[in-house]
Design a protein that fits this description.
Radius of gyration: 16 Å
Oligomer: single chain
Shape: globular
Largest sheet: 6 strands, mixed
Distance between the termini: 20 Å
Structural class: alpha/beta
Helix content: 10-25%
Order of helices and strands: EHEEEHHEEEEEEHHHEEH
Strand content: 25-35%
Length: about 230
């Protein structure tokens, strides 16, 4: 981390750190807690005023519907998989999209030209309240997308109705989740995509499969999410 150019970070800036937390299972099913503590510490050391860390888990375990009807809790899952503890130890602020309200917590994003979406992309309102975004994905297989990394991590931004539309037209599934990253409100704030993989999830995914240790650990950093994944 000390080798990274964080010249975009000004004194007192607010940074949102986006995790991959699909379940209560531990890394590699989710972002490594070590990545959370390390990156948050580096951001504070470089002058960040606030570091907010969060996500919303996958629809199998967490769902939010109109009228504030809900099933499950991302907060509870992060308490199970070690991410909540890592956030608190880092002195950062935990943020769970499903706790913010179906209407009050989201806004309609600005999609890129030529997109494949037939319905609005609804993003968490906290995106508009921060100066920068850092993405901390996991690296592993995924039963629908083939594999899950930086681009696929963007699904966690979506409100549940947008998640439904993402999966509803499977012919453009990959295009649509890539296009989430190109929404103006996200693309203008993305500064760093950083993978720290101590283990990999193979043969199924995203939350269950064969866990493989990697030696040496895999570290990938880029200011561009597509370059990062490539």
């Amino acid at each position: 981390l000390a080798r990274l150019d964080l010249g975009w970070l000004g004194a007192g800036d607010t940074v949102f750190v986006k995790l991959a937390c699909n379940s209560g299972h531990v890394h590699p099913a989710v972002t490594s807690p070590a990545a959370v503590t390390g990156v948050c510490a580096e951001l504070f050391d470089r002058g960040a005023g606030r570091v907010i860390v969060g996500d919303q888990a996958g629809v199998e375990r967490v769902r939010l519907a109109p009228g504030e009807a809900r099933f499950g809790s991302t907060r509870e899952l992060m308490e199970e998989n070690g991410l909540y503890e890592a956030i608190m130890e880092a002195g950062a602020e935990p943020h769970f999209f499903d706790d913010e309200g179906y209407d009050a917590g989201y806004f309609e994003a600005t999609l890129p030209e030529g997109h494949h979406w037939d319905a609005p992309v609804m993003l968490p309102r906290v995106v508009e309240e921060v100066d920068h975004i850092v993405v901390l994905p996991r690296l592993g297989s995924h039963s629908l997308s083939g594999y899950s990394h930086g681009l696929k991590c963007a699904v966690g931004w979506l409100r549940d109705d947008s998640r439904f539309h993402l999966h509803d037209d499977a012919a453009t599934f990959h295009e649509k989740y890539a296009e989430i990253n190109a929404c103006a409100e996200l693309a203008s704030r993305y500064r760093l995509v950083f993978t720290f993989a101590q283990q990999l999830m193979l043969h199924q995914g995203p939350d269950t499969g064969t866990v493989a240790d990697v030696d040496p650990w895999i570290v990938i950093a880029s200011d561009d999410v597509a370059h990062h994944d490539a």
